[in-house]
């Protein structure tokens, strides 16, 4: 039974590394804005997380935050606090919530939500200045990319 | 969170004689800011220096070009600006009070709208494109006649409704990044956002010569760029929304000197 065999293999993979990611609209935030479980179902890759943090089209976190460990990337911003040591005083659950939608933790924060797809005013098509083509936008980071960033933030232990 | 000392303490005197007010008490209508400051204070010393002498200010080349345009006959009425307004000095004081209410048209007019009204209705000429270099140059020529005078835009009476609309736009968080003008220019002036030192986003210096694109830039052009950077659908230069926003932003600079053409990076 070829078909069943294939389904079984797919199911097995999903159970292991490739579980269905939690859709942006389905993320459960705690009262203080934390998110319990991995959004992708997998562990994060801190190295890729570091790359996302300095990538202008992705996280671009250094536009607003100084991070000593990323000092090779130029021009760190000061709109947000330095992230040095943040992995020491915040849990992975809190960091996941902050990266996915910081407004759940800090009311009215200027920090953008990186895993949110609807509820925007005049959403654009990326940085073109034109109207968005889809009703629901693509989140700025994928579920796995959020996990990668969180994994990197957890490595920032001394501040 | 505004970090004190974000703006420098330099003083601006143009050509060794025009003393400029670049910091002053905020107008009463502003809620969250006590002192207003020209964007000049947030630029590097080298960039600042370019604005201190007209021989160094690249924006003055465009002013010279606009003097030619001022005297050039165009359109079906065979008139130039000079036919009706004499020399550009007749425009002294005009920049300081724009945008303002035009009674006969029953609308709030920006300087750009007034220039195009004269071109189309008085001269029978083609309008300038709203945020084009010829428009910015003509605005700069008119602005330079008011250089050093305090911005004094009216916000009440017939413009009140438009002003409220502009204020609403200023505080609306747009785009996928959900940022408003206030997120950057009220809550974070003085802070660095990547390579840029955030100013209060004042428009007393517009049109502005930018080193980045080596031309004069209009306020609406700048608004468009800032809205685009929130990953939003922008408004168009000359749109009713940007006219309202210009009135509101201009009023946040009431008391600062007219600086145009200023120089920025």
From TrEMBL, chain A:
This is Sulfur-oxidizing protein SoxX. GO terms for molecular function: electron transfer activity; heme binding; metal ion binding. Transmembrane segments: none annotated. Gene3D superfamilies: Cytochrome c-like domain. NCBIfam families: thiosulf_SoxX. It comes from Marivita hallyeonensis. The keyword Iron applies. InterPro entries: Cyt_c-like_dom (IPR009056), Cyt_c-like_dom_sf (IPR036909), Thiosulf_SoxX (IPR030999). Residues 1-19 form the signal peptide. Residues 44-157 form the Cytochrome c domain. Keywords: Heme, Iron, Metal-binding, Signal.
């Amino acid at each position: 039974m070829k078909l069943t065999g294939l389904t079984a293999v797919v199911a097995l993979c999903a159970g292991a590394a490739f579980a269905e990611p939690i859709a942006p609209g389905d993320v459960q935030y705690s009262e203080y804005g934390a998110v319990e479980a991995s959004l992708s179902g997998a562990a994060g890759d801190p190295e890729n997380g570091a790359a996302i943090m300095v990538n202008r089209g992705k996280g671009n976190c250094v536009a607003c935050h100084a991070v000593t460990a990323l000092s090779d990337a130029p021009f760190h911003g000061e709109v947000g606090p330095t992230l040095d040591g943040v992995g020491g005083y915040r849990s992975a659950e809190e960091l996941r919530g902050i990266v996915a939608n910081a407004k759940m933790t800090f009311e009215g924060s200027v920090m953008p939500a990186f895993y949110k797809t609807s509820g925007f005013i005049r959403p654009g098509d990326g940085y073109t200045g034109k109207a968005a083509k889809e009703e629901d936008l693509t989140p700025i980071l994928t579920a796995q990319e959020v996990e990668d960033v969180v994994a990197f933030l957890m490595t920032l232990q001394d501040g | 969170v505004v970090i004190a000392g974000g703006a420098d303490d330099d003083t601006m005197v143009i050509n060794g004689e025009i003393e400029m007010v670049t910091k002053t008490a905020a107008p009463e209508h502003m809620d969250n800011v006590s002192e207003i400051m020209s964007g000049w204070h947030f630029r590097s010393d080298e960039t600042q220096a370019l604005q201190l002498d007209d021989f160094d200010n690249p924006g003055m080349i465009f002013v010279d070009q606009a003097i030619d345009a001022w005297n050039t006959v165009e359109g079906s009425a065979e008139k130039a600006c000079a036919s009706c307004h004499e020399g550009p000095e007749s425009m002294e004081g005009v920049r300081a009070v724009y945008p303002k209410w035009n009674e006969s048209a029953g609308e709030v007019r920006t300087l750009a709208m007034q220039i195009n009204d004269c071109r189309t209705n008085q001269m029978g000429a083609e309008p300038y494109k709203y945020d084009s270099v010829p428009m910015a140059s003509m605005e700069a020529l008119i602005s330079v006649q008011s250089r050093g005078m305090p911005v004094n835009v009216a916000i009440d009476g017939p413009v009140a409704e438009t002003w409220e609309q502009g204020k609403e736009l200023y505080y609306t968080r747009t785009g996928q990044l959900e940022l408003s003008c206030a997120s950057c220019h009220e809550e974070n002036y003085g802070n660095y956002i990547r390579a840029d030192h955030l100013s209060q986003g004042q428009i007393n210096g517009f049109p502005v010569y930018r080193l980045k694109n080596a031309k004069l830039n209009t306020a609406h052009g700048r608004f468009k760029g800032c809205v685009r950077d929130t990953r939003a659908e922008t408004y168009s230069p000359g749109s009713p929304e940007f006219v309202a926003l210009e009135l509101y932003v201009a009023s946040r600079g009431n008391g600062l000197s007219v600086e145009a053409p200023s120089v920025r990076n």
